Amino acid sequence: MLYYSLDRDAYQPRFAYEGDAGMDLALKYDLTVPVGAHRVGDTGVHVAVPRGHVGMLFVRSSTGIKKHLVLSNGTGVVDSGYRGDIKISLHNTGATTQHIQAGDYIAQLVTIRIATNEICEVRELPHSERDTNGIGSSN
Fold first, then answer.
1. What is the C-alpha to C-alpha distance for residues 43 and 106, in angstroms, rounded to an integer?
2. Structural domains in the chain plus CATH codes
3. Buried b vs exposed e over 31-50: b needs ≥16 C-beta within 10 Å?
4. Tens-digit pLDDT profile for the chain (139 aa)?
5. C-alpha span between 43 and 5 (Å, rounded)
6. How far apart are CA 46 and CA 6, in angstroms?
């Protein structure tokens, strides 16, 4: 269960279709994002991501395609202990200033189960078949 609360004047999060992975989030206030600029918008939505899960924030596909807006950091992470307002940091990669109206659903939150790990520093990592072969190594 994903519990949420709303600030005054915030818009209800929604699943557009039954079975959708992403819960759509709307901006609480109008937002203007000039070409090449970053702006942060408030959703007024607070969530309690279940322990053992993470909330991953993405722009909706229509936001990227129609408005040329991407998340400033690529993907947002909402940890299970965070209870603040979900903010959306947008970067305009297009050729025109973008105006987003309050109530426009522009992002989506996907909740994913995660493995939590203890960390331990070692002198050397265990060998693997791939080893240090990086970008382009698999053709």
1. 10
2. 23-113 (2.70.40.10)
3. bebeeeeebebbbbbbbebe
4. 899 999 999 999 999 999 999 999 999 999 999 999 999 999 999 999 999 999 999 999 999 999 999 999 888 999 999 999 999 999 999 999 999 999 999 999 999 999 988 999 999 999 998 888 888 777 7
5. 11
6. 6
